[in-house]
Amino acid sequence: MALLTPYWGLDGILILSSLMVAAYLFMTRKFNYWLKRGVNELPPTPFVGNFMDCLLFKKSAPQFLQEVHNYGRNLPLLGFYIFDKPYLLIRDPELVKHILVKDFEYFADRYSAADEKHDRLGYANIFMIKNPAWKSLRPKVTPTFTPGKLKQMFDLMLAVADDLGKHLESLHLEGDGKVVEFKEVSASFATDLIGSIAFGIKVGSLENPKAPFRECGRKVFDFNFQRSMEFLIIFFFPGLIKFLRPMFFGKEATNYLRSLFWNVIEQRVESGQKRNDVIDMMIKMREIYKNDKSLKDYKFDGDDLVSQAAIFYIGGSETSSSAMSFTLHELAVNPDVQKTLRAEIHDALAKTDGKITYDMITTLPYLDMVISETLRKYPPVGYLDRIALADYKVPNSDLVLEKGTPIFISLLGLHYDPQYYPNPEKYDPLRFSEETKRTRPSFVYMPFGEGPRFCLGMRLGLMKAKLGVVQILKDYELSPCENTKTPVVLDPNSIVTASLGGVELNIRKITTAAD
């Protein structure tokens, strides 16, 4: 005798069918969440919501959010689902301003998270840490890269720029030149820079691509299946963190960074050397704030202290190398822009006897427009994430966002919105002339975020990208090669804006004024 019917086979079919129906009802119980609140939503698919292509790595999370932004054209906001959970995308710049600035206290934390106990380097850094620790920590870390300190570091930066010049000279680029992969060159240059100016380390990855400091960066952003899933969990499924324990920097890089930075700190303390860099800042903070009772979730010691060095390293290398390599690509495929920028650089060098100076790098208007346009098309991180810390009534609306609601803003969506940037696929630095910028609303260009949680390393990242571009463009001409991808193909496995397969360009040395 079977359980429900005279036949075991029929019982099995009935039980399995019942379980499938129950699973379906459970995983779709929250669908229509946004429609019930008067908000348009992306039609979800049972069990996966709207996130299937990202789970299958057919497209990156930034690309997915850009598509959500485009789907909701002319709407101020749009709901979507990951699995069965409701998420909200903000499209209206005025509402973005409320989320990031005016009503910041409701959205002070990122939705993304790291494991507080098992991944302190990922949890405690200034980028990821939650309130109330963030609010107390931010003003203590902010002075690290002020304009004054950047100016003090500039000679160290010039030494690395000279290393870049020597590296290119060693490639013998006279005549027709040769093909070079500039994603790697840019990353090595940025890594050598951050190693020198922030940590007092001579990395030398331009000459030795296998240098351990450079290899660490590769491991963090090695978008194999495991690392891609770790990032998706951290940024989109933080509720799974306590079960799956992903690591923000990855296990190998975490162990390397912990060992490296403590060795550097101990050597600096023993030697008494002062360099006004991140290591000095960390040592000073440890001395000043070691008994600070205001930071209940943070200590200026151990992994908590090292976490700041780790995020400066990753942020300081990835942001500027991305901006630099994408700029070089766009200059190669837009020769008129390249010619105009080179003329500006040569005019400036003529006034400084051929020497690159801090004031020159920071005051070249067309260079600034070029880098700005690059960051419009290729923001290092293609979206911003926040979480509602309390119930929040949306301005000029009856909608109330419930506490715990994940909020996303697509930077790629805003940066490519034809309402703000006509013909958005075109690379046009003149979009960032002073006159043109005044015609655009605020909060439609945010490559480094906006509001109190904007990127601390913004000035440093811009400085490094500009220095690298000037160092190359003053002596060399860039052009497309057979492997140059136009338009750029973005890596579908990447959580940041990264090109698929690198940035290959032809480069040749300029030998005459006519060139």
Task: Supply database-style keywords.
515 residues; alpha+beta; 4-stranded mixed beta sheet; 3-stranded antiparallel beta sheet; 20 helices; 9 strands; 49% helix
Provide a descriptive summary of the structure in words.
With 515 residues, the chain is α+β, with helices and mostly antiparallel strands. Helices cover 49% and strands 8% of the residues. It is built from 20 helices and 9 strands. The strands form 3 sheets. It has a 4-stranded mixed beta sheet with strand order 1-2-7-4. A 3-stranded antiparallel beta sheet has the order 3-9-8. The relative contact order is 0.15.
Q: Report the count of strand segments.
A: 9
Given the C-alpha coordinates, what overall shape results? globular
The low-pLDDT segments are: none
Distance between the termini: 92 Å
Give me the side-by-side strand order of the main sheet: 1-2-7-4
Average residue-wise pLDDT: 91
Helical content stands at: 40-55%
Helix count, per DSSP?
20
**Structural class of the helix and strand makeup?**
alpha+beta
The percent range for strand residues is 5-15%
**Element-by-element helix/strand order:** HHHEEHHHHEHHHHHHHHHHEEEEHHHEE
Give me the Rg, rounded: 25 Å
